[in-house]
Amino acid sequence: MMDKENAGRMRTIITTAVCGNASDVYQTTIHITGNENADPSRVLGCTITNAKIVDSKFENSNIENINVRVNGQFEIHIWYEVNGDTKISKNIAKFSELIQVENIEGISFIEEKCFNQLIIAKINKKSISLGTSVVNISGVPTLAIQVEYELGVEVVGEVRLKVLTYLDNPPREGDETDIPEPVFSGEEYGEDDD
Question: Backbone phi, then psi, for 122, in 5-degree steps?
Answer without folding.
Answer: -150, 160
